[in-house]
Amino acid sequence: MEALESAGAKAYLGTGNAHHVGVINEYIFLECEFVDDFKVLMHTKNVISVLRFYVGAHEGYAANVCFDVEYEMEGEQALNRYLELGGRLGLTDTEIAENTRKVKLSRKKKADKHQQR
Question: Is the pLDDT of residue 97 over 90?
Answer without folding.
Answer: no
